[in-house]
Design goal:
Strand content of chain A: 15-25%
Order of helices and strands of chain B: HEEEEHHHHEEEEEEEHEHEHHHH
Largest sheet of chain A: 4 strands, antiparallel
Structural class of chain B: alpha+beta
Oligomer: heterodimer
Strand order of the largest sheet of chain B: 5-6-7-8
Radius of gyration of chain A: 45 Å
Number of strands of chain B: 13
Distance between the termini of chain A: 29 Å
Shape of chain A: rod-shaped
Amino acid sequence: MRITENLLARAVLNGSARALSRLAAAQQRLATGKNFTRPSDDPLALSKALSMRGELARIQAHGDNASGAVAFMSLTEGSLQEISDLLAHAKELVVAGMNDTNDEAGADAQALELRSMIESLLQLANRDSAGRRIFAGQSTTEPAYSGGAGSVVYRGDRGELIEELGRGLRVAINLTGPQAFETVSARLEGTVDLDPAISSITPLSDLDRGQGVMTGRIRITDSNGVAADLDLLSATTIGDVVRAINDAGTSIVASIDPDREAILLTDTGGGSTLSVEDLDGGTLAADLGIANVSDTASIEGRDLDPVLTENTPTALLFRGAGIAPGTWTLCVGSETGTLSAQIDPASANTVGDLLQMIEHATTANGTSLGLRAHLSADRITLESGKLHTTLSISDDAAPGSAQAMGLTGIASPRDVFALLEEAATAVSARDHEAMDRAIRDLTSAIEGTAGMRGSYGSRARQVLQLRDRLLDEDTNLTIRLADIEDADLAKESLELAQAQTVYNAALSVGARLYDQNLFDYIR
Amino acid sequence: MPGLFGIFELGRNSLLAQQAALQTAGHNIANAATPGYHRQRVETGPTLPELTAFGALGTGVRIDTIRRVENRFLELSAQREIPLSARYSARAAVLSEAELTFGDPAEGGMQTFLEQFFTAWDDLASSPEDSGARDTVARTATSLVQTMRSTRQSLVEKRDALSGEMRSVVDGANRAIHELERLNHGIMASEARGATSLGDLADRRDAVIETLNDLVGAEASIETNGTATLRLGGRVLVQAGISAEIAWDEGTPNVPMLGGRSLGLDELEGRLGGLLQARDEDLAAAIQGLDEFAARLFRDVNAIYQQGTNSSGGSGNAFFVSSASRDEVTNAAGTIALNPILAQDPARISTGRTSAAGDNAIALDIAALRSTRGGPASLLNAVVVDLGGRAREANDLARGQEIVLDAIRAERESASGVSLDEEGANLLRFQRSYQASAQLISIADEMTATLLAI
């Protein structure tokens, strides 16, 4: 190839320009610390970096959400803990109020403390996290509950506070007032005394509403003057007493009266005088209402009023009328739907069977309703075993047996404010029955609160894990983004040094090119 | 018949030939650095020999022609590659500037504003009661739409500036056309005078052709008489005795015209082609992409927002408003604005479907738009990446074409350039020949004196 001066000059120029642009590029990467500063530097990497940057912004925003949610939820969890503690203390106070040695002043003090707890609960219920009322549902700007002791009303709604903690992952972070405070299970109390009759198998200890009668020895004398001393110390049932009298060898015949309330003694000896008396200072005959001297040939004892127990045969209920035929439909309602089950109370032999039947009630597809049933004061009481549910019973016949037992209406869950108010009233009135109920309710509320803490706590832990994961993802993605975007300083420094060397070489070669030519030698 | 005076004649011719060769070497040296200069060489040949009984007797030297050294193949290659190179580098220069319109993609670019907008909604979703969070949503929305409008404005200005630049390219091309026409005229005249070589006239002609190729990319051919013929899109631009001007169509689509017809992208090369492509393809695509992004943002955000109810119970109307009609994409980025009612009173921004203070359903859904596949964010990314890709493509093409052109120019320089060493050697050679010829005359003179002294 023919080489000319212009060709050399061009080569030098091109070479040094190329070296210079390489130097400038390396220098720019070093100065900015970035692999590319304009989209055309590396469109492919930019595309990746842009979508990663978008993802990073999303993760950071969700991480912020999760941190806020964690704060909110730990405050709510702490509040639930305080509610539990308050209720436990309230229960202690009511139990103390039950103590027989408790005097009026003590009861007043306990009632006062119970009422002050309502104020504490109210403050708790109206707590806020960074200005948001935590128990008010979505009505976060207004107090969740208003009113004072005896008239506390929920002002919030049932809305959820939602946080987005991942792409499409939304979590409700709040508990509404009803969820946190309506923890007393719905209870359907029978309003009608089931008034069981007696039968030969009725235990003596069930009589007089379960106070029982003291056994002892009695003497019976018939109209012919034949007397018998009966040792009934080991008698346990009405039947034992009746049988002992009938087997005594007198002309007195004992039976259960047609009303099935009392023992009836009739003299069959032809005379009309008969008498029954307690011996040894006992009270059995008197308690049975047969300690008497009669000249009408019969003695009718008093209404023995046996208590309702699980062993009571259903046939004895309603003074022996028994349970009317017909089925019950049990309904447990919640926000998510209603569960219902049918049972046939008339097929139960004993009251215990009926209770079992209620507790084991299942829907047509086998889901348990989770009811609890128990007896109190000759009445049947049903309680929903699930939090925040309503409870109702309907008969298929009219009038049905449920209505006859007074199990009507729809029972709703109650809040702890009303419960504390009831407890305070019961304690100050020293009403043992009411205190008893309050203790049961408080126990139910403590269990209910514990249940809420369990389910809410697992939600809070999930949010905590999500936050940690988001922090991890943030770190990982930042590193990956840096891999793409950030210049490798060591590599770039080397590149810069090389580019500098090449540039210097190009310049020094160029400078020497024109040192000499032929004209230097032409003389 | 050989004679003494024949030697005088021979010497004289030789002196003239060496003188011409020396002058040409001097001309080459003088123009060593002139761009487009082709070295010239005096081509000499022996004069007709004198036939004698003992054979042909040489009678000296004569100048055949002064040749301009050129490799026609290389000239043609250069003329083919120059228009492409000019086209690519003109487009690359425009796009390198245009791609910065969207700001630094890493920070502070439009993406950042979009992220801030979505993050503001996300924060609002976390505290829908907070008036500060509403202010932030309104502020980031305003910044975003302002950035969109100014970015679009800037792209449109760049696009419009290209039209002006193209007009000045067309003016330059027209000047070159006139010069080429004059050169064609001169070439024909010199041919008429019987010149066998055009020399510097051809240099000038080739330089003008190169200029025209650089500007508009014409298809050039050299006629046997040395005149140039140039065609553009199959239509004659310059021919011996004829020339046409490139006109400019002021209306839409605002393009150059030749012979009453507009010139399209497939007919133009050179800077004009590059600028036209940048204007009608690259910048148009960027503006269109930006508008599609704006229309999408407008539609998606409003579709969610309109389900909302603000805390004072008012139903949410529109978050973004536009002076364009509802589903219009054209100029969407230039007309989008935050609903002035909300801009004035951010407290009226709805966050939920109900009036409950804690209802954040709307805010959640709008914030979730950030990661919707094919959503506004990915549309915006696509616009930036697409423009960057175009700039990259134009840069790569320009750089590659520059290398091709450089190689051809180097070849051409190698063939036609002036080598000072070569000219220096020639100077010595011709000087010695001149001295020897003079010596010949001096000897012939002495011989004549000798003869006369007899």
